[in-house]
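re: that chain from earlier
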Amino acid sequence: MLPLEAIELDAFRQRHEHDTYWCGLLLGGCGLQLTTKLYTDRVCHFAHYPGPDGHPHLCGRSARSVASADHLYVKSAAAAWLHARGTQAGFEFTQPDGVPIGSVVDIQLPHKRLRVHLDQEVAPVWDAEHEPVLGVSVPVDQDTLIQRWYVHRIRLDSEGTARRVRIGTEAFARPTEWFALDDCEITERGLSTPAVERIVRSRSTRPASPWGAGRTVKAPPAHARAQTLLRQLAEARRVGSVVVVTRVCRDMAALTEAEGELQAQLSAAIADADRWLEEQAQTRQELFHDLAQAIALQEVGQVRPLLVRANAIASHDRTEAETAIADDAAECLNAHARQRQAEVAAMRAAQAEERARDEADRVKKLLDTLESRGIGQPRRAMREMVKDLICAAAGAGAYVDAQQRKQVELWRRRADGAGALAQIARQKKASPPARAARLKRTSLLHEQVGRRSWFKEPCPRCHAAKGRHCFNDDDSGGRDRRPLPHEERLQLIISTRNARPEQTTQRPPSQPQSTSPVWRVKDVTCPECDAAPGSNCTTPDGRPHQRRETHFRRRFHSP
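^ sequence. v structure.
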């Protein structure tokens, strides 16, 4: 996360001066490179580089808040937490029905699957193969809390430039308790917190009986039973649980032992609850009516919150009409998501096409530059330009025609050849021991050739003319005259001298003797194994290395 203050951004830039930043595809971005913007009068932020025309780049990423990367923080924190417990898990940023990426994170454990809902885009499914973990903005109805005993929640708190994951446990008529991820465990039931352990223990353990063994426990009196039902009714109305209110009213009506004032109190409570249930039914009817109107008008901004509310407070005992409206709402949201995906895909395709055209123009400019001054410029500069040309051609794709591709391939071969020459030149600048070994070999050779014969033949290495001294050709920065001829020149003289008698005896007397030297691959030093002229390479069969043959052809057959 980029720091928002200028002084913090300075330290951030120094700490990451060798790093690059990119618009993340897993954040819904375009994948292009970003830069940091430092401001003293407003918050610092990442920004795209401008387009080739100088105009701001258009990116399809819509969510830019701190929470837009929470799915990545959840994956990172969960992976580290599970790894510390010796558990491996798979992660997937699921997009059911085309919802934006990051709304749902699926965590596949060895024997359990968790689905983290970070927003309200996807309604939780309680009877599926995965266990829902709800974000703080995802509603849950009280009936679900009663039936499931508890639900898990997740929130992310900002700490400096990071986000810290916390897991909560929400139960019926209890506040949500929050815990650090390290306080949680994975059990046979799934994700578990200290609060879950207390809830399960209280539900599973019977209270200690105050009665001695063998005594019959009497049923509570009608007055105590009635007071318990009245408290349950008040609590159920407070949290808005229609199912619990209906059940408690039914239990009150079945309490026949109540008499007098107690019966009147129960009757009044039942009547008041009936009116409350009628109001809830009216509210439910208005909710589905508003939802149907929003669907008809294709107001997606209204359909989504209304459907979430309907799933939260009206998920039980739906009529066929209510079920049809909810299904239409889900289809409306799916259609909108598909349309949005198509628009984003079209926008990205247009951006990709524009980038390809720009790269094609860049290919043309680079080819023109190379054709005009590519051969005469330094080898390193030419290789860098050819590297840019190859990258631009790859980005241009089909916008590079066949003729341009041939030119790109030609320049690639030329750059490879220049690279090989540079590598040979670097190898010539050998370490002092290798240089001393070569000088020793040269001194041994020049002792076999008289000083007057040193320059009788042109040098096949530095191309010094006949009668001229050899000069340095090892890219050391100059062409200084050498005190001794190159060993290739001396070896050529020795080979020519040794071959003359043989050629004289085999040639008919009518033909004049040729003074042209016999050129062999072994007459040059091997740049691969440093074999001396006249010696075999260190290959298993003694054949010359490929680089020695290339070096030989370049020295003796170059135009």
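The CA atoms of residues 123 and 287 lie 17 Å apart.
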